[in-house]
Amino acid sequence: MTMKNAVPADISALPVDLSGKRVIVTAGAAGIGAAIAAAFADRGARVHVCDVDEQALASCPHPWSRADVSRRDEIDRYMQEALAQLGGLDVLVNNAGIAGPTAGIADIKPQELDATLDINLASQFHTVRHALPALRASGGGSILNISSVAGRMGVPMRTPYAATKWGVVGLTRSLAVELGGYGIRVNALLPGLVAGPRIDRVIEARAKNMGLTVEEETRLELSGVSLRQFVRAADIANMALFLASPFGAMISGQAISIDGDLQSLPWQPPAD
User: Fold this and answer.
1) CB of 86 closer than 8 Å to CB of 48
2) What pTM value is reported for the model?
3) C-alpha 15: how far from its chain's center?
4) Chain centroid offset of residue 261 CA
5) What is the residue-averaged pLDDT of the chain?
6) Which pLDDT does position 202 carry in this prediction?
7) pLDDT, tens digit, 9 for 90 and up, residues 197-250
8) CATH no. of 22-194+232-258
9) Torsion region of 228: left, alpha or beta (phi above 0 gives left; psi -120 to 50 gives alpha)
10) Do residues 23 and 48 lie in contact, with contact meaning Cβ atoms separated by under 8 Å?
11) On the CB side of 24, how many CA atoms lie within 13 Å of its CA?
């Protein structure tokens, strides 16, 4: 059973003004990315998003580029388009990611591992490479890399996903040291169990693997969360706003969990 959310849906009381800031959000047409893009736009920022979902892009209110971040040539193109449209860059949000396969390591296909690595980790590396000259030209800025609670704990049956999310934290902390001298702050956001289609698919797959109903698996998933509720996309957008604003001016190199105090994930070893 989930508890009522004890926090406000936004941080409208906090005087965050990002007027004129130039922001790129990858996978920004739906889900967490759309919530982040909307939050920045609501605070006066100019936002450019990329996404592979053409249906979501059709209703996207921001300038956008259609791009598959698993391909370096498409990363090259959308970053060129975004930087040209914005005329520079102040904030980069590396949000693109996939859940990857849910299976034991012996049953995961090599191409499934490759796709998860390319989208969840390599795309962030390549996007930062393109963004760096513009961030330096602007006098500094903020890079926000979306990791996951899977970036601080083991996640059985999700090894490609967890490996990439640990990798994002390592990338973030290394970039914070490397880029700090340019006034560029780099942080990772570690969402917990985020309400939406992705966690629904993960729960369905885990329930099937464990021989449980979806309702039983949902209760198991939330049993390790102190607040007994799913995170909302708005909760992640709120933290992104804070970190990119002057309030976050001295925060860099951090892996910040937004997870309702997730202490553990359920695990039952498969039968022999």
Assistant:
1) yes
2) 0.89
3) 24
4) 18
5) 91
6) 76
7) 878 987 898 788 888 999 998 998 899 999 999 999 999 999 999 999 999 999
8) 3.40.50.720
9) left
10) yes
11) 32
pLDDT of residue 196: 87
Half-sphere exposure of 91 (CA within 13 A, CB side): 30
Token pair of 27 as six digits: 């996978």
Token pair 């290394």 is found at 174
Question: Where in the chain are all domains bearing CATH 3.40.50.720?
Answer: 22-194+232-258
161 is catalytic: yes
Question: What integer pLDDT is reported at residue 268 of this predicted model?
Answer: 55
- pLDDT at 189 > cutoff 50: yes
**Of residues 161, 176, 224, 244, which has the active-site annotation?**
161
